[in-house]
Amino acid sequence: MSASSISGFVSTAYAQSTHKQIETAQRFYVTIVKSKRLSPTPVTIDSLTLMICCMARSEYKFSTITKYLSHVQRWAIREGILVLSEQDKLNLNLALRAAKKLTDGPTRQAATLSKSEIESVVVALDVLSPVAADLFILGTVGLLRVGEALALKAGHINPAWFTIKGGNATGIIVFINKSKTDIGGQGSRRPIPCTSLPPTAYSAEDTVENKSYLCQSPLCAAHRALRRSRLADSPDDALFNISREAYSTGLRKAMSTCLGSTDINASTHSMRRSGASTCFSAGWSLQLLGEYGRWSSSECLDKIYLRNSHHRIDTFADNLYETWHP
């Protein structure tokens, strides 16, 4: 077996999105180093420190700097061109500390919406852009990353029956074909039941398609997505024919309108963050929530996504009252 074949085999350990991130960081590193008339190879303490310094002075977020550094080092190790002594590693950590001091400011998390605020944003988006409203409610309920939602095709939405509370409920199965945590590239299937019609005992003649159109709730993610998928000319057509920029702009406007303020971090990340907070408030365990939402770890979910969200305040207050009241 050739060296290139072995290298190709090893590289399949990374998800496609990770490969793209590594390539982007590599090109960025090479551009910076060459601009200073230095050689990008081998990768040394001087070239890495130069990249860190340039990024910090250009006001990149510290998290972005560390991510790019990690990707460049990963690429250099794989290519056998990383030259760092133990002293170099210490100096690299000092460079990172200097960058952190220069770039650290208050980190603004994406705004977390309550369930009622989510519903208000859907209504507001329906006026601005129905496709954006469909994307938002599916992404929030299905805990999708915006990239995952935009990668969905019409054929990735399929009607389904679910047995819920002793009855049958209509809904959909969503095939998530592109995810940054899907290292094996197998894709994931996630159920989303109708949240409008109550489960009931349907007759044998009933079909999912027939029952789907009985639900016209603007807040039912399953049937909004199913109806949109049926409007496509081909299963290979994009489910949401909207750009990331257009969706982001519409969402910011809708959130600002509903929350009555422009001084909020209205971000596409609010979609997944708000969905996670709502599910956890409803009693989902971290393990179940992490598995459904395809988080890399429950720690990431707990410490980042659920931090400072609505359920935390109510939970803290409830427990303190139970502890201290007479």
From TrEMBL:
Keywords: DNA recombination
InterPro entries assigned: DNA_brk_join_enz, Integrase-like_cat_sf, Integrase_catalytic, Phage_Integrase-like_Recomb
Single GO MF descriptor: DNA binding
Domain Tyr recombinase: 108-318
Residue intervals passing through the bilayer: none
GO biological process: DNA integration; DNA recombination
The protein's name in its UniProt record: Tyr recombinase domain-containing protein
Organism per entry: Perkinsus chesapeaki
Lineage, uppermost ranks: Eukaryota, Sar, Alveolata, Perkinsozoa, Perkinsea
